[in-house]
Amino acid sequence: MISMARAALLAGAVLATVPLDGPAFGTTGQAATAGLLPDIRTVVPKQVQLVNMHQRELLRFSNGIANTGPGHWRMRPEITGTGSGQVQHAIQEILDGQGNVVDERLVSTYEFHAEHDHWHIDRVALFQIRSGNPVDGPIVGGNSIKVTFCLIDWYKLDDNPKHTELSYFHCGADRQGISPGWVDQYHQATEGQALDITGVPAGDYYLVSTSNPDGNFVESDTTNNTAWVSFRLSRPNGGNAKISLTGHSPCDSPGLCGLTGTNR
Questions:
Q1: 199 belongs to a structural domain
Q2: Do residues 11 and 191 make contact, with C-beta atoms less than 8 angstroms apart?
């Protein structure tokens, strides 16, 4: 079950509603920069399950975003402090090996949600259901949504260190991010961790999750940001829909395959 601490901290990954007006975010993310860069990867989605709720069929799943690069993936808002509720720009800080900020880039927006009492960052991930193939197959049932998250160190990708090693551990109006070698994971029961497949015909499909889908955030490689699981949707005798997992994307390590996740 999801921990009470996580439930209180992360009331949910919610659909992006803040328009990215002003500077052209997508044109600045991958410009040359000094310092150590993160490499943002998606862990293979786990705990994929079909839930019937209020006559809707929801495909729920846990989602992990890993940083496998040598640099921190770190953002700050323009205005710090819990008293401000205004939407504001998110600035990505690029650090050197000594932890000094050597570059800054405007990459996204911060938004404070009073009902959740924390801040999160826009357009961190993209969730889709596709048919045919996971790369450019048709989108199924309109299921292509960009989501916002608060970003913290949740578990280590390849080992289990003491919690004192955490660099990012709250979602206040301050710095958020994922340290090198760490993963931020969202439980399948968290609001926003679901796609609606009500009425989708029986068949074979792909649940596709992509981190940094617009390339706004500065990282070393944007070609390795997607992971997927394939599943078969059946509707036996016209009854309740069922799913069975049939495969997943290649992954470079047990951690990226989702085998080390805590799923809290």
A1: yes
A2: yes
